[in-house]
Amino acid sequence: MNTRETSENSTQVTDNNPPDAVPDMEAVAIAKARSREEKQKIFRERALKLALRPDTDDQEEDSLELIEFMLAHEHYAIEMAYVREVYPFKDITLVPCTPPFVLGIISVRGQVISVVDIKGFFDLPKKEITEGFRVIIVKNEDMEFGILADAVIGEIRLPAAKIQLDVPSLKGIRAQYVKGVTQERLIIMDVDKVLSDESIIVHEEVGN
């Protein structure tokens, strides 16, 4: 048997080794075709799954983060973007020269916050204040005060499509400060309008 040695005598290669096998081009073509079909099938399945999967980003854009609470016998909600915090109703100080719906002021970590009873503002029946009452401190760029809530239900996410903007059943002053109502009679309050109400701003300045 003839052999060929490298200069370092480290590798031997026989001259009579069989030549490299010639690939079967037809078999390769079939394998590639099958591979393409499998890939296309996988892509189709992925596309179908993506089409059926809910788009989380769209859901977030088309829904509202709200805090739900009670005023008298009615359920209300405020957008979380306007809510600074929820605080216990306690240690309130009365302020002269304010309308009946302005209850007074409280101190929240050294900051003085006016508290408004929206029930009086909306002509809703008042309830005896108990330990379960809470102050929802709301704010925008120009104003900040607390809204007295009979009870706070909690935070919710509400699809915008469930909000009815035209609410003919709401009349009087309440209708001016409502963004919409759901089929379950959850009233979405327009906090920006409440915070911008001149009667509250004027009386707060007088109280100060």
Automatic annotation (TrEMBL):
Gene Ontology annotations for the cellular component aspect, listed alphabetically: cytosol
Signal peptide: none
Compositionally biased intervals (Polar residues): 1-17
Organism: Desulfomonile tiedjei
Full protein name: Purine-binding chemotaxis protein CheW
Pfam family, one: CheW
Gene Ontology BP annotations: chemotaxis; signal transduction
Annotated spans, Disordered: 1-23
Residue stretches making up the CheW-like domain: 63-200
